[in-house]
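Exam prep: given the inputs below (a chain plus cytidine-5'-monophosphate), describe the expected output before reading on.
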Amino acid sequence: MALTRAAAVAHLAVALDGSERDEILRLAGLLAGLAGTVKVGLEAFTAHGPDLVREVGRLGVPVFLDLKLHDIPNTVERAARNAARLGAAMLTVHASGGEAMLRAAVAGAAGAERPPAVLAVTVLTSLDDGALAGLGIPGGAAGRVRAWAEMARAAGCGGVVCSPHEAAGLRAALGAGFLLVTPGIRPAGAAHADQRRVATPRAALEAGADVLVVGRPITAAPDPAAAAEAILAELCAP
Ligand code: C5P
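Solution:
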């Protein structure tokens, strides 16, 4: 499954996790031509808020706003509306908030001029089956992810965040047109850190992922642009 470079770039989302505004903007500028999306998540958002989202957006690369909203439907609807107005292309909410909350998020996001795709975070890629059992959730990650993905689709979400391990099963079950966004991406030899359900960029793509979310393997590399280039080369290799 060889890709053109433009297609590989479109598949890559770089997670700009950090607390230093200047460093986040430096990385966003550096990686703008190497990633289809840059992700602003909780660390950066709690430090710099909506202004940072607007500033990153002005660099010309679509923003993936990973706020993982999880609250009662009314609150999530209003928060999703505010978040959507920041101009993000994608916005996350937790599937475990339930179907009514997901519907509320979609309704709230629809209030923006250009509504973002609302993505439901299924089971965090830092959790394995043992950790789920410890939370009192039986049956393992695969079954839970599948059930929550079906619920998310029924609620009108544009896709889900899942691990690369579930991507092939979800693609087969849900068909094309429903975004599968996979964190837990680790190039061969990279440190797993707190991630548990991981795969290489190529394996995730071949499993059917649309967007590969990569954070530390790029942002913590001595040369982030070179690390991104290496991932693009892996995706483009015949
Ligand atoms: O540094 P790393 O590649 O592990 O970053 C992964 C990013 O994806 C982080 O920003 C994390 O918040 C996010 N994420 C995740 N697992 C999910 C949803 C989002 O790791 N299920």
